[in-house]
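Researcher: Next entry in the queue.
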Amino acid sequence: MKYLDFYGQKMAQIALGCDHYGETISEEISLRQLDIYVEHGGNLLDTAHIYGQDKAGGPSTSETVLGKWLQKNSSVKNLIVASKGCHPYKEDMHRSRINEVDMMLDISQTLDQLKTDSVDIWYFHRDNPQMGVDEIIDLASLLVDKKLVKYLGVSNWTAKRIAEANIWAKAKGKPTFAISEIQWSLAHCTKETWGDDTLVTMTEEDRLYYEANALPVMCFAPQAKGLFSKIIAGKTETLSETARRRFLTPTNLALVPKVKQMAEALSVTPAAIAMAYLTSQKNPTIAIAGSSRVEQITETLQGADLTLTEEQIAFFN
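Model: Structure for this entry, 317 residues:
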């Protein structure tokens, strides 16, 4: 496992995504995945209050299952638990929930479900561009001041908004956003193909911001729902309808022979190539591994130490 330095603590560059735990992924499989991940040296667990949640303000199956595992494995050291809150209403993604009442509701339920007094990282799950960054930072500061959250993050925010927020926070002596989470993978994707215009995907301009500021970025859907692995294995028909819509494009199909060639040359799996493409970037990057099957997590973690050279990364560009 490769690690980044996160405020003096080592942070695994492959995080375990806990989306769908207790929902479409059974509790039994979820707990086994958590065990395997930690056994391989992983220490960064990514969840969100909306994962497995039926309605805003309700319980999260993901946080509940993770809380059971954390309670049972309280002796495990150096874990970093990240969750997210203030996700917009599912029925209207442009109806923001970034306000003090919803924020405190979400964090209190998150802590109850995780069975802890504080969470290491807490993200605003979406931005509200209509709010000033000063107002949002003031809100977020409450969580740090109350010692409910150690570090603040943002999910699906542009680098421009993060920069504005952090400049203001530093000037006022407020806590800054220490980490970001967006969609980024070797396979290209847009908010249009994803089907969510509140989604933020990586651009080269944004990547340069993360590099210049040494700001860690966590990447969700880093393996594009197994796109390269399944196509190379001759199992294109097993791609889900969602994977086809988001990633099965001429641009990504053109990458398939390149992924196959490099995987064979390095004697690793296509999944390892997809993850290493992210974890080998100049900017500090974490790939979030998620799967409904135990064997897929095991396969992904087998390539956790792989590092690609600049020339190998450029091969895909």
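Model: The chain has a mean pLDDT of 94.
Researcher: Noted, moving on.
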